[in-house]
Specification:
alpha+beta; single chain; 5 strands
Length: 120
Amino acid sequence: MDSRALGQWGEERAARYLRLHGYRIVARNFSCRMGEVDIIAAKRGFLAFVEVKTRSSRSFAEAREFVSAAKQRRVRTAALCYLAKNPTERQPRFDVIEVYTPECSGGRRTEINHIENAFE
């Protein structure tokens, strides 16, 4: 599977995970000139801007380690663009979802790790 297909596969798994955990998917792949947000999801009083990182191997690093400070800035900027067009009373939050393929999880099912408030 090439990296684009792997990323789309991971985003589908992340969206399914969020729905199963009570989130409503508000938008997918929202972009503006300055950045992109993979998934925007609402639950209770929060609006989560979610960066999804999918990996087929853990040999180099954990997926969350690929969300650099520069990437965080781009996601924050895209979130500001979204909020300017879609005002809300919900508290914005930045999450990361790591998706590991079955090959990476030792042949077990897909492994998903949801990190709430992931950006510092």
